[in-house]
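Example 3.2
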Amino acid sequence: MKKTWTRNDIIESISDSVGLSQSDSSIIIEEIIEVILKELEKGDDVKISSFGTFSVRHKKSRIGRNPKTGVEVPINERNVVTFGSSNVLKSYFK
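Structure, written as tokens:
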């Protein structure tokens, strides 16, 4: 069975490979995530070279349908975060 990586798994991996303490690795990961979130909140895209681009997309309100009952339900407009992988990342999985 494939494992789902958690934030702690990433922190441990960085700690082991770079030689930093887990505390320092945790601070670095938290700061990276915080920078990405702040930029997305401002409406800016975040491009990580050779990895991909995070962006915010606005979705309009629409009518959805409950697949079990068929009842129509209004879905409010909202902003969603999207990620587009770079060509370099895509090439790893060919």
